[in-house]
Amino acid sequence: MGTLTNRYATDAVAAVNYVKRLKWNHRKENLVTESWLMKLIVEKIEEAGFTAAMVGLALNKNQSPERMPGIAKKLSAMDLGHNKFLEHLMVWVTVIAPRYWWQDADTYRLTSKQSQSTNHTVMRRPLTSDDFEDEDVDYDTLWRLNSFIEDKKFLRLKKYLPEGFLQAREWRLDYKTIRGIILQRRNHVLPHWQEFIKQLLALVDHPEFLPGLDKPEGAKHE
Predict the structure, then answer these.
(1) What residues have CB less than 8 Å from 161, skipping those under 6 apart?
(2) Model pTM?
(3) How much is the pLDDT for 11?
(4) What does the domain layout of the chain look like in residue ranges?
(5) Which CATH number fits domain 38-122+161-209: 3.30.1360.170, 3.40.50.10490, 3.30.70.920, 3.30.110.170?
């Protein structure tokens, strides 16, 4: 009897492990295709501060500002105050991304953001699948949200609004913050960060002052 019980216990453990493997394989497949469902758009509004940054660096080095771009490129990867000129380089962008990504982005508080307020916009019209990251948002969810809009139940709408709801914000960042984002987020589990970095590096005027996206995971920081 004990042998039979042990065999059943062993079979049960094996079954559980098998199910875990199935779930993990399914999750890995989803991770491959997940990026196709991702929505994140970055558009640059303007950029400023290069001349001021080079003049300030020239004063610090007691050299001509014309020589500073080459020196700045060497210093840009040196933290501990050596690259503080990056704080003078400012870029303003508009970012459209899902709410759950914005919650992560709000970690960077030494920046300025102005958002598309759900308080002022979400009650103005019925929602459609285009308002969400996953355009396959189910009919029942849309029906419930739009019934809240029709009945002017704002608090209930806010409560049940999915995290995939797309929100546009204007974001002001300096290059020092962008450098930190790249180093900290380029291997992040959310693929939105890689997409944000890739688009931002293609938009800024001086990507030579910033680390790249393709550094191997686990590699030592610059």
Answers:
(1) 99, 118, 122, 145
(2) 0.77
(3) 52
(4) 38-122+161-209
(5) 3.30.1360.170
